[in-house]
């Protein structure tokens, strides 16, 4: 081993005693049960439901409360305790007792919370628990968690609680301990893409994730679309604005990210003055808390930005014949005299033929006003601090795929041929497929945002994010086309079908799932693939479990817009030291008083581990063993006098 590396290590562990105690500590950690991992996908801006599922650890907290207190505490009180752990500020503000009763209630509540905290921390080392503790109460928590049943200790414990109440710090204490219980209930969070679009406030979700310690994200097509918009791709800027307006989500744009929509609003009101914009009515009414927008004006803005997007996409496709998507330059395929459009060789009548800004000579050219309003929007995207904070976070924690503890996570698919071979996708002069394809795309995604030199290469990478959003060979999209134009302008369902990549059919076969796992260098007999992207239509008898349990699709429709299709409100996957379970969520209805009672997910164990999984069996266990090896070498170097010890005072 490199002596220079050992000398660096010696700075952290300067003598035999410090090395020895770290070796003992690390060995002990490998024998603890592995922490619980929670998997989410396709959150789609539904911040209320997501925050509840995250804070309740997908029902795990209530289960633990039931296990601990089912014999001594009523169901009603157990529900109240779980609600308190999720939303302490709110529950504390709601309790109505007399002064004496309130003190009693708070005292008992603190005892119960401390008990819960001990239960959920039992899997971790003291040091790990300390790291998760809110700083303000760290000392008291430490005392509580390590108190024994000895009589004097009990007295000491009661004294601390009385003092907390006497000095009126109990609410702060309760809020802090609830946060600690939540943090200890989930060791690691995996987000398998699509945080953005459709639902009202993805920015609030991003803020919550930003404050979370251990999280990884696998980018979804909707996330990539926002990343591209933030990187400066104007077609994607138009796309994210169009999606937001189509769901009447002005708050995320204006209040959340400070995007200035005034130029768009003025332009739309003027240009589409005589147009009822029927095809462009937002899907949702009354959504915005801040500055609600007139519904008809929203429809006009929606149409205005859609036309701009179609122009910008056409221009982008002109720059990139290699995408082989000329057939998507649909504004050029409109026949104004006949009021029709040619798609895939067929003529379809248009249901909306009012295109006041489209110049038939050069349909893809922006009018002067459109150009101006795009400049205004681009300026906002460039300068939104919060947007860039969130996008940087997506980059820092995100990737095209992740391998972790025997699971392979990615949002959409690995493009395949009908025969089940990895589909080769050409970029430049090279073909990429399988794992190589995803690795290559990861580099491209990073280039698009982080190379600030505005070279042609970066421009290409930025345009490429648009391809990842909707290109047929994009693993994040995985469909033959995105029928945006067709959905707005063609009547009925003809010509609108988006055909899924063969992957989505082939994954029913265990052999195909095993082939993918092998491609990613994972054990084909024990590992799993976890995907999102395609809503699982439970209502129609579809199952989230594919390939004989080798693959899970956990997009069950957290997005409200998709719940009528799926019949439920999403899945989360929970991987504890004993089980892999699917939590099937019911729609989140905060307007109902007892919603948290009806809201508990149905839990289904999909795999029981042959023996309890320990930290030593995880990826982190491998890293720890490596570290122990290095520390042992350092220990020997101290003993042989090759490296000199520094004694601490
Ligand atoms: O239902 P919406 O929000 O109008 O969006 C429909 C579009 O969204 C997509 O499904 C892509 O989004 P997903 O990644 O969530 O599936 C397109 O294929 C489709 O055309
Ligand atoms: Mn998706």
Give a concise summary:
The chain is of the alpha/beta class and 649 residues long. Helices cover 49% and strands 10% of the residues.
Describe the overall structure:
With 649 residues, this protein is of the alpha/beta class. The chain has three domains: 3-31 and 618-639, no CATH class; 37-192 and 532-613, no CATH class; 214-383, no CATH class. The chain is 49% helix and 10% strand. A seven-stranded mixed β-sheet has the order 7-3-2-1-15-16-17. A five-stranded mixed β-sheet has the order 8-9-12-14-13. Helix 4 crosses helix 5 (75-86). The longest helix has 25 residues, at 295-319. The chain is globular and about 90 Å long. The two termini are 29 Å apart. The model has no long low-confidence stretch (mean pLDDT 92). The structure holds 1,6-di-O-phosphono-beta-D-fructofuranose and manganese (II) ion. 1,6-di-O-phosphono-beta-D-fructofuranose binds at residues 194, 198, 221-222, 479, 482-483, 498, 533. It holds the Pfam family FBPase_2. It comes from Anaerocolumna cellulosilytica. Its cofactor is Mn(2+).
